[in-house]
Write a structure and sequence with these properties.
- The protein has one domain.
- The model has no long low-confidence stretch (mean pLDDT 92).
- It starts with 5 loop residues before the first helix and ends with a helix.
- It is built from 2 helices and no strands.
- Helix 1 runs antiparallel to helix 2.
- 8% of the residues are buried.
- By secondary structure, the chain is mainly alpha-helical.
- It is rod-shaped, with a radius of gyration of 24 Å.
Length: 96
């Protein structure tokens, strides 16, 4: 795999989005753990949980879709090769 490959770059970006979500969750945890006052903890907890879980979900979900599309493209290329080979064989039999 090369970084010039658009599939690789997209997978790395989506993985980075998921990692960013984990970092946001960690920062929210750190912010809420810094105090014992619940009224100060709740904004950290709510915004960090929503943003962090959202980023993780989007990153992992889109990565899954991206990898499924990559598999489908590879399978389509194999099928195209098989159809091409079958057409060549049929043409060779037709010449006889």
């Amino acid at each position: 795999m090369s970084l010039r490959d658009p599939f690789t770059r997209a997978a790395l970006v989506l993985l980075a989005v998921a990692i960013a979500g984990a970092v946001v969750l960690g920062l929210a945890w750190r912010g809420s753990a810094a105090t014992l006052d619940v009224s100060i903890q709740m904004p950290f907890f709510v915004s960090g949980a929503v943003a962090g879980v959202g980023l993780i979900g989007v990153g992992i979900g889109l990565l899954s879709v991206h990898l499924d599309r990559l598999d489908a493209a590879e399978e389509q290329a194999i099928l195209d090769d098989m159809v091409h080979d079958a057409a060549e064989i049929a043409e060779a039999f037709q010449r006889r």
